[in-house]
Amino acid sequence: MSTASPRLGHYALGGIAACILLNLPVRTLLKVGGPFATLLVAALVAFSLALVFRWRTGRRPYPVERRVLVGLYALGLGLLYAGLLALMYIKEEPGLPGQLLFAAHYLAYPLLAWIALAPERDAS
């Protein structure tokens, strides 16, 4: 356990890399697709991120750390998703339903990270 402040950018980059690396085998080898694949990968990464954070620091993230970590994670994934959306526009402009589905796929990642990194609730 380290008493130093955790490097939240490293956790965010690790989460982003895990998203990329997990999506490939889930979608190609396991032949899982669509929203289920997104939710599966997003949940695995989010709860792994929370587990690694707790293992390395010996505690859950403080509220400010949670906000910063999820913000960096969402920003990094958002940049990748923006690039993917730009490629979709180059090929053919997606309609509104396609854009909404695309946004839902993206939002699953930071939302599940936010839930996984939640502070413990008092038992009282």
Give short descriptive properties of this protein:
Transmembrane protein, elongated, transmembrane helix, transmembrane, mainly alpha
What does this 3D model show about the protein?
The chain has 124 residues and is mainly alpha-helical. The chain has one domain. 77% of the residues lie in helices and 0% in strands. It contains four helices and no strands. Helix 1 packs antiparallel against helix 2, helix 1 packs across helix 3 and helix 3 packs antiparallel against helix 4. The longest helix is centred in the middle third of the chain and has 29 residues. The mean pLDDT is 92.
What's the structural blueprint in terms of helices and strands?
Blueprint: H1 8-28, H2 34-57, H3 63-91, H4 96-116
Helix pairs in contact: 1-2, 1-3, 2-4, 3-4
Quote the distance from N terminus to C terminus: 28 Å
Largest sheet: none
Radius of gyration: 16 Å
Quick check: average pLDDT? 92
Low-confidence stretches: none
The fraction of residues assigned to DSSP E strands is under 5%
Output the number of helix runs.
Answer: 4
Give the topology string: H per helix, E per strand.
HHHH
Q: So what's the overall shape? A: elongated
Instruction: Please tally the β strands and state the result.
Output: 0
Structural domain tally: 1
Secondary-structure-derived class = mainly alpha
Helix content: over 70%
